[in-house]
Amino acid sequence: KMDDDDDIPQLSSHALAALQEFYLEQQQREGMKTSQGFNQYSIGSIEEDWQLSQFWYSDETASCLAKEAVLAAGKGGRIACISAPSVYQKLKERDGEDFSVCILEYDKRFSVYGEEFIFYDYSHPLDLPENLLPHSFDIVIADPPYLSEECLQKTAETIKYLTKGKILLCTGAVMEEEAAKHLGVKMCKFIPKHSRNLANEFRCYVNYASGLD
Fold it and tell me: Which Pfam families match (predicted)?
């Protein structure tokens, strides 16, 4: 029998406390919304949960993508994770290996990772810190938060700005044409899995000879 805890990323006690505080605030907010007759299905009300469901790949998928990123980046390589924190966490578990990584993420709870955390809002794709130099990453892994062409197109601007060339994109199968159009990436055979089942078929796309086929 599989251990149900396998998919849960292990967070430090500091991160855990921040997470608990976040959930408490969220519950209080949800309570307020409900009492004000707030429409629970309107955009925004499910944002945090949607972001959470979008984060966590299954442990196996996160490990596989992290391993691919390290191989693609090469010795001393630099890896950027855009909206893909579960891959970032797997990379952090590979301690002592010769690569560096940073995470561009909207969810400020990930600021517990210190200087490697860069607040990122895809609607301002080039609003990045000055120390993030153009074409300074050997590979960029991205998982745009929404299945929309606008979101992909804007995230693509960030990806193209940061990468030296290699791109690993995770998004819905329905985005295949847009992914090719905006990033020149092709679908891999590898099928990424999430720890909760998502309604949309999910795929990986690359623009280089990867180990994902």
Answer: N6-adenineMlase
The 10s digit of each residue's pLDDT in 176-190 is 999 999 999 999 999
Q: Please, are residues 159 and 183 in contact by the beta-carbon 8 Å criterion? A: yes
Q: Which structural domains are found in the chain, ordered by start?
A: 57-206 (3.40.50.150)
Is residue 39 pLDDT above 80, yes or no? no
Identify which of 177, 168, 198, 178 has the alpha carbon closest to the alpha carbon of residue 82: 168
Which tokens belong to 53? 């469901």
Q: Which residues pair with 170 in a beta bridge?
A: 204
Beta bridge partners of 55: none
Among 45-54, 105-114, 136-145, 158-167, the minimum mean pLDDT is found in 45-54
Single pTM value for the model: 0.75
